[in-house]
Amino acid sequence: MKVLDHYKQYFKFNGDVAQALYRVGGNAELEAKNQTSFMKHVGLKPNHTFLDLGCGCLRGTLDLVDYLDDGNFYGMDISKGMIEKAMERLSGCKNKGFVTEIGSFNLKDFLPPWKRFDFILSVSLLTHLLPDVLTDLFVGVRRILKTDG
Known about the structure:
Blueprint: H1 5-10, H2 17-22, H3 28-41, E1 50-53, H4 62-67, E2 73-77, H5 80-90, E3 97-101, E4 119-121, H6 131-144
Parallel strand pairs: 1-2, 1-4, 2-3
């Protein structure tokens, strides 16, 4: 598995809320409503486990934390600043969510060994990656996605 140092340098955010919410562009509130609506449309239920891969500051998925049963939301990102902002934003949720910074796409290294997901969402992550890590990403996702996920 390749370490994502190159990407960490490029996507090095300091946790500034304006930067975290609007760095990629678009309307954060509309994006959150659209992603939540889409995930429900494709079958996401409160009892499902969900991973936001490349979660940033949770600008698109924060609403899902309280929709899902307590503890069923996970987020991963390579940016320490974004994860710090995501953790701040999670503190306002009634349900628990878990976010962590990752250094490779060997995703199991950042999760309990038994953890598997019903749904994994990644919005625009693939458009930010070079071909050298795409295989690692798909191998990592395969390891943590349930067979019927």
